[in-house]
Amino acid sequence: MVTSAPQPADPLLAFTAVTKSFGPVRALAGVDFELREGEVHALLGENGAGKSTLIKVATGAHAPDRGSIRINGRNHAALTPAAARALGIACIYQQPALFPDLTVAENLALRLEPAATWRRVDWRRRHARAAELLQRVGARIAPDAEVRDLAMPEQQLVEIAAALGAGARIVIMDEPTAALTQREQERLFALVRALRAEGAGIVYISHRLDEIFALADRVTVLRDGASVGTRAVRDVDEATLIQLMVGRTLGPLYPPRGLSAGAPALELRGVGCAASGVRDVNLTVHAGEILGLAGLVGAGRTELARILFGLTPADAGVIISQGRPVRIASPAGALAEGIAYVPEDRRRHGVVPELPVAQNLTLAAHRRIFPRGWLRAAAERTVADRVIARLGIKTAGPEAAVATLSGGNQQKVAVGRWLETRPRVLILDEPTQGVDIGAKVELHRLIRDLANGGLAVILISSDLPEVIGLSDRIAVMRGGTVRAVLPGGTPAPAVMAAALGVDGGGTA
Ligand SMILES: Nc1ncnc2c1ncn2[C@@H]1O[C@H](COP(=O)(O)OP(=O)(O)OP(=O)(O)O)[C@@H](O)[C@H]1O
Ligand SMILES: [Mg+2]
Questions:
Q1: Residues forming a β-bridge with 326
Q2: Helix (H) and strand (E) counts in the chain
Q3: Could you tell me the distance, in angstroms and rounded to a whole number, from the CA of residue 150 to the centre of ligand 1?
Q4: Of the residues 62, 406, 412, 437, which should be mutated to test ligand 1's pocket, given the most ligand atoms within 8 Å of the CB?
Q5: Any idea which ligand is nearest the CA of 206?
Q6: What is the pLDDT of residue 68?
Q7: 13-88+169-246 — its CATH code?
Q8: Using a 6 Å cutoff on CB, does residue 394 contact ligand 1?
């Protein structure tokens, strides 16, 4: 029985010995993977292990070089995007792939109606269908809202609504929670569980092990493009997964805290910005310390970072830099004060995807690396090699375009390029988002080393254990201002309480 009628025991999806290369890069080197009805199957692996590539084979975006794809008991040599959709495969990416100029209802119609009927428009029905699907995913979004006006998590819900509407039985999620708040994440988990209860199979990619333990039934680990094991989640612990993933045990996740902080590097007195909703922030960050900013999304953390980097300049209060009041009116002004900022949205501000890795790593530091003003390829190469080695950036070479790197490795480039500017104050907004656990440990160590060398670090991360584990002090923001400053290592419930404004929350 090779490709005969589907058997009840057949998995929804089965990959056997699937391979895929991009030129000299072997992204998939023989992957076995199976997804059953009614399971959440996590896919885990280091940055560049091949997770996204495997997913793109399943959605028909990439044709495999070799191997077999079996869906609902039938073999397929390769899939096209249309064939994959017709087979009930839907994928929710971290960055939703909707048309920004169209409305939500139009986007859903494009996904759900065959192209031939697209022109025979029944607007009322289309609108009602969109409203019904949005309600099923618990989204309070108007069907005639334009997608460009929706926040990222709302766009993600539209994607999930489209998957529901298409009756998808195989739902793939590639790092869906990277940019979600706690509440949005819980809503997403509830949706995933509901899909599972209806018999769908869900492939779930995440670098956050706690999510995998909370949500998944089984987990398959990829390493260097090959599957190294599939386990029932209830039979494994974190250490086992890490061992499978990186092939060794890791040291402690967080380096020891700094011994003592130095002089104030930046002092904020009553700082505010009406346009971004930040008000009356009193805060000091010292040379040699890591100051974590905790708070819910919307609490004002990124807004405060943008004030300090001159993107939305302060219109109230005083900022004191190296003992004197300064006005930071632009990023150039911030850089002149020695303030650097690694933004959270690497795709928009972090890297230039078309340019080589080496150039991306040296862009921000041109003046220091090339003091005479001309580009010295050798100097660029030396710096690039050093950062690539230090951060373990997986790339075909320094000349490879950043666009060809895996998501997590692009993130490492985004962080790495600022390290070379040797700033006095470094603001990191979600520096380890999408970064695998081994590289996370490496980044944590690096950030601590920089602080030990006298740098003042302001760390924004929605990964609460990271803020708690890495910071010397934690400033908790809520409603656009700092509500409490807690010592590093404060237990998570206390930090959450301050962030939510329950139990008093302490004072600044
Ligand atoms: N279009 C492409 N051209 C060249 N190389 C590619 C391309 N897409 C992926 N690769 C390479 O294939 C390998 C696997 O990448 P993939 O994106 O699948 O990793 P991943 O497991 O999803 O990693 P991450 O956790 O960082 O998202 C990487 O070495 C990557 O650089
Ligand atoms: Mg990926």
A1: 319
A2: 17, 20
A3: 29
A4: 406
A5: 1
A6: 92
A7: 3.40.50.300
A8: yes
Task: Please tell me the distance from the alpha carbon of residue 343 to that of residue 280, in angstroms, as a whole number.
Answer: 23
Q: Which of 152-156, 192-196, 329-333, 423-427 has the lowest mean pLDDT?
A: 152-156
The topology (CATH level 3) of 255-338+423-508 is Rossmann fold (3.40.50)
Amino acid letter, residue 332? A
Question: Picking from 1-5, 276-280, 308-312, 486-490, which range would have the lowest pLDDT averaged per residue?
Answer: 1-5
Closest by CA to 189, choosing from 166, 158, 212, 207, is 212
Q: Is the CB of 178 under 6 A from ligand 1?
A: no
Alpha helices, DSSP H, located in 300-427: 301-308, 331-336, 357-363, 366-369, 377-391, 407-419
Cβ < 5 A residues, ion ligand 2: 52, 407
- The reply to whether ligand 1 has any atom less than 6 angstroms from the CB of 405 is yes
With a pLDDT cut of 70, the percent of the chain lying above it is 91
Best mutation site among 404, 413, 435, 437 for ligand 1 pocket (most ligand atoms within 8 Å of CB): 404
Q: Which ligand is nearest to the CA of 51?
A: 1
Is the C-beta atom of 20 inside 6 A of ligand 1? Answer: no
CB of 227 sitting under 6 A from ligand 1: no
Q: Does residue 22 have its Cβ closer than 6 Å to ligand 1? A: yes
Report which secondary-structure segment, H or E, holds 280.
strand 278-286
Note the pLDDT tens digit of each residue in 413-441: 888 887 777 789 999 988 888 888 888 88
Predicted pLDDT of residue 260: 76
pLDDT digits 0-9 by tens, 164-208: 888 899 999 998 877 677 777 888 899 999 999 999 999 999 998
Residue 500 beta carbon below 6 angstroms from any ligand 1 atom: no
**Could you give the CA distance from residue 358 to residue 395 in angstroms, rounded to a whole number?**
11
Comma-separated ranges of CATH 3.40.50.300 domains in the chain: 13-88+169-246, 255-338+423-508
